[in-house]
Amino acid sequence: MGDVRTTVEEQLGAVTELRATLGSLVIAASNADHSVVVHVDTNGRVAGLELSPEAVGRGHELLAEEIMHVMWAGQWQVTAQVEQVVRDALSNDPELARTIRRAYDLRDDRPL
């Protein structure tokens, strides 16, 4: 019984650590000249925006377009980073990977 409890506690600790890592992850994406920087969190939400005076001087339509492109790039980057963090966590702990897969298989809201 002690071994099972230890394993469960270790898995819970690993999941808690993974959640903390993912919860604090923010990607800073920028355009080519770094005049627009968008910070994106793991949910794809904008967590911050930095605009240089040069970017602001481009006009609102060009600026809006540039912000959107950088935001989308940041969302792709953060998605890739989340996938890598999860992949690394699961590869380091095969039992945790099996537990998460089993929990996912039991979900009713999975895509068909």
From TrEMBL:
Source organism, top-level taxon: Bacteria
Gene3D superfamilies on file: Nucleoid-associated protein YbaB-like domain
Protein name: YbaB/EbfC family DNA-binding protein
InterPro entries documented for this protein: YbaB-like_sf (IPR036894)
